[in-house]
Amino acid sequence: MPMSVETLRQHLVDAFADAEIEIEDLAGDGDHYRARIVSSAFAGVPRVRQHQMVYAALKGQMGGELHALALETSAPAKEG
Question: How far apart are alpha carbons 53 and 11 in whole angstroms?
């Protein structure tokens, strides 16, 4: 069974409470999403590790309920 955008969003909000999250269903099938996540949790963290953090937040559902997830992760831009 595919993962709904609401379920995906909830997993991400639970893991990254301060995040700005944008999710796009790429194929309209609940299996292929693009997510843009901006969170202070990513500050100073290499991109590969950021993506690993997102996969961990999905609690093993990547590759099962969720087939594909294109990620864009970053920390908030510093002001000043």
Answer: 12
DSSP state of 21: E
Report if residue 52 sits inside a domain: yes
Asked whether residue 43 is assigned to any structural domain, the reply reads yes
Among 2, 4, 12, 5, CA closest to 51: 12
User: Please, what sign has the CA dihedral across residues 18, 7, 61, 65?
Assistant: negative
Percent of the chain's residues with pLDDT above 70: 98
Cα–Cα distance, 13 to 27 (Å, whole number)? 23
40 SS3 class: helix
Residue 30: name the closest of 60, 2, 64 by CA. 2
Per-residue tokens: 8: 């995906």
Using a cut of 0.85, tell me whether the model's pTM lies above it.
Answer: yes
> How many domains would you assign to the chain?
1
